[in-house]
Structure to design on (735 residues):
């Protein structure tokens, strides 16, 4: 029960936060959702009902973008997160040189997406790129254009993910550091050794951390844009396009209402993912 | 002090007070009167890496000094000042919606088409009509890309460039060509010999330089029917125009025959430029500005500039060569009212299009003047000879035409970059490629 004399100070102290929330979240969100049911180019505004969504669902590029987004998300969840966990668990054992490895693996996560993409555009370059040079050392000399061949472009983009393991690694290492040593000692007394210690103690206690990493990875991949935009612009023949890039194209062509419909769809997918992953990993619940 | 003196002093004081007030008011009025009219420029920021922006910046300083008491151009920082992609158009569209366009800024022809629909661009037709000597000072056809179908002029041309093909004279000579090939048939024969000698015949990038060659193939085709001037805007014209189909298929053949660099789809002109500048490629298409920005810098191998020629495009028939001649961009204004600010805007535009400034721009950037200049003045200004020679030669060629970007719809480049690699690799046929290119680029149906 709030005392009547406290109501005004509480309201005043909440006001800046509420104003900021309304300005930077509620208003843009309302604008996004409202305009997704309209034809809008910045100058003229006309409600068109579900037309934008119908058009989106009938466009084969949308389905290609959706398929690619699912593919990139799957690579993120099933390759990036497990690899990051594995490295995090190994480095948490404080093996020799672990600090150096930690720094090296963390660096790609820190640098900007644009710089990261430029490095990979050179790595994959068919004329002077490092990848073809490395393959030539193993007898696979070719001038394959990894980014602009529809059969390899999607995998070339996904291949860059393998270098961004730093976030999962750090989260896992931090979580492992908080696990009481007594648990391991007790398990060792009961005869558990090596991998079984991690299987029955570390991994169950990492559930919240792994769930968080999966969630962040998914939310990041569902809106994947910069690396695809810089490396391939969504091509060739839309083989690498993502939902975010598909929406951006609509925005560039002045179809702001259609772009909002795509944005709303991404938002909806994100919401479903948050709820699903939170439930699956029981995020926020204390580990048993 | 005697009483007379006191009276005199008292009288003087009484007179002095209003006089002082009057002097102060007059001084204030003078200060107000001498306050210069300030206008904003969205393409005049200092840039150590872009010679065009740097020229604009220096020209602005000269204008401000010359008109110190009357006008002042204020530099408005703009991250899109030297780019020409859809992001820049979006940026200006947002400013137009907010009624906040700069008083003076640079736009290319396709951006003008989109932005004039906002109603926030100044129609410069009347301004030119009221100053006949200014209007008549411009070179032939420079307003065509900057005007609409009704003849209204939306920008003052920045330059008038002839765009050709750079070639390594030594490499072509080693393939048996003392002069640049005159026909596309000869061009392909030369490319075959260059390839056999282990060279890249022509450096492409899947975007700018590829599309310059596409424009050359179309522009010199006798059945082009003004595709680059008009048809490129209409979706129906792409797969139906024989020149477009032939040009597209020819360009594809060069890729499959191995005449081009392995990274010819990268979308980054620097990859094509690097192939030429490193001496790996024999030819690359680009504008005259490449001399100052790359060919005469450390990016090029030693002595390459001296070994480089700059030629017009080959033609489909002997004696039917052509060149891209283009007013790539123009100075537009977001100030539509006719007031003191408009007076300052026009003064600045006239200053930028004066023969002296156009020559200074040519000297710094390599871009050719958009105004008529006496041949003696051009000789005296000692302009770079490669670009100058082609510009003179262009007037006597069988074909002159704009490049793709002048009239293409807004998303043309993005659509091309997306579809071109798949088409070259045989995943799309010519008709599908051209129809999708037109649709994805935003070309409208005729009528």
């Amino acid at each position: 029960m709030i005392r009547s004399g406290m109501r005004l100070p509480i309201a005043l102290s909440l006001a800046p936060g509420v104003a900021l929330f309304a300005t930077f979240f509620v208003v843009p969100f309302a604008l996004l959702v409202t305009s997704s049911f309209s034809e809008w180019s910045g100058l003229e505004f006309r409600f068109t009902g579900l037309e934008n969504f119908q058009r989106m669902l009938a466009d084969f590029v949308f389905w290609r973008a959706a398929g690619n987004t699912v593919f990139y998300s799957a690579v993120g969840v099933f390759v990036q997160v497990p690899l990051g966990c594995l490295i995090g668990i190994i480095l948490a054992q404080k093996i020799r040189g672990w600090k150096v490895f930690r720094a090296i693996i963390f660096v790609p996560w820190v640098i900007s997406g644009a710089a990261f993409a430029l490095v990979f555009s050179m790595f994959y370059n068919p004329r002077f790129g490092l990848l073809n040079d490395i393959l030539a050392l193993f007898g696979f000399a070719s001038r394959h254009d990894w980014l602009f061949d529809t059969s390899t472009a999607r995998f070339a983009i996904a291949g860059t993910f393998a270098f961004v393991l730093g976030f999962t690694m750090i989260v896992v290492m931090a979580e492992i550091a908080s696990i009481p040593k007594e648990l391991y000692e007790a398990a060792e007394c009961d005869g558990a050794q090596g991998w079984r210690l991690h299987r029955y103690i570390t991994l169950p206690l990492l559930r919240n951390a792994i769930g968080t990493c999966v969630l962040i990875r998914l939310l990041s991949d569902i809106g994947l844009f910069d690396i695809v935009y810089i490396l391939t612009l969504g091509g060739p023949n839309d083989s690498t396009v993502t939902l975010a890039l598909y929406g951006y194209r609509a925005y560039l062509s002045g179809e702001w209402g259609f772009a909002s419909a795509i944005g709303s769809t991404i938002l909806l997918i994100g919401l479903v993912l948050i709820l699903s992953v939170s439930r699956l990993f029981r995020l926020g619940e204390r580990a048993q | 002090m005697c009483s007379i003196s006191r009276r005199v002093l008292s009288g003087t004081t009484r007179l002095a007070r209003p006089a002082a007030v009057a002097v102060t008011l007059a001084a204030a009025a003078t200060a107000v009167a001498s306050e210069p009219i300030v206008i904003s420029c969205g393409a005049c920021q200092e840039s150590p890496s872009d010679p065009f922006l740097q020229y604009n910046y220096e020209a602005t300083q000269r204008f401000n000094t010359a008109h110190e008491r009357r006008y002042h151009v204020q530099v408005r920082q703009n991250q899109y000042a030297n780019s020409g992609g859809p992001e820049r158009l979006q940026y200006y569209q947002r400013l137009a919606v907010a009624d906040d366009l700069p008083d003076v800024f640079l736009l290319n022809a396709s951006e003008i088409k989109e932005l004039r629909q906002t109603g926030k661009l100044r129609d410069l037709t009347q301004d030119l009509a009221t100053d006949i000597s200014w209007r008549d000072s411009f070179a032939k056809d420079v307003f065509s890309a900057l005007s609409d179908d009704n003849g209204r002029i939306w920008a003052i041309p920045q330059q008038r460039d002839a765009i050709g093909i750079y070639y390594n004279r030594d490499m072509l000579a080693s393939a048996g060509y003392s002069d640049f090939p005159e026909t596309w048939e000869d061009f392909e024969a030369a490319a075959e010999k260059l390839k056999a000698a282990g060279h890249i015949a022509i450096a492409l990038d899947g975007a700018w330089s590829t599309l310059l060659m596409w424009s050359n193939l179309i522009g010199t085709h006798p059945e082009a029917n003004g595709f680059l001037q008009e048809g490129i805007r209409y979706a129906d014209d792409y797969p139906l125009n024989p020149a477009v189909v032939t040009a597209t298929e020819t360009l594809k053949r060069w890729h499959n025959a191995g005449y081009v660099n392995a990274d010819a789809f990268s979308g980054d002109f620097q990859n094509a430029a690097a192939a030429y500048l490193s001496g790996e490629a024999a030819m690359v298409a680009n504008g005259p500005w490449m001399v100052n920005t790359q060919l005469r810098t450390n990016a090029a191998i030693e002595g390459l500039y001296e070994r480089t020629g700059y030629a017009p495009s080959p033609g489909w028939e002997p004696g039917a060569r052509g060149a891209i001649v283009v007013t790539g961009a123009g100075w537009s204004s977001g100030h539509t009212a006719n007031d003191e600010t408009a007076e300052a805007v026009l003064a600045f535009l006239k200053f930028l299009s004066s023969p002296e400034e156009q020559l200074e721009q040519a000297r710094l950037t390599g871009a050719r003047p958009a105004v008529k200049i006496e041949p003696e003045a051009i000789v005296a200004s000692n302009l770079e000879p490669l670009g100058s020679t082609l510009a003179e030669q262009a007037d006597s060629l069988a074909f002159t035409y704009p490049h793709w970007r002048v009239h293409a719809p807004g998303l043309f480049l993005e659509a091309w970059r997306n579809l071109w690699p798949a088409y070259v690799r045989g995943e799309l046929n010519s008709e599908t490629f051209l129809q999708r290119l037109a649709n994805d680029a935003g070309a409208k149906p005729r009528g």
Remarks:
- Strands of chain A lie at 38-40, 45-47.
- The longest helix of chain A spans residues 60-91.
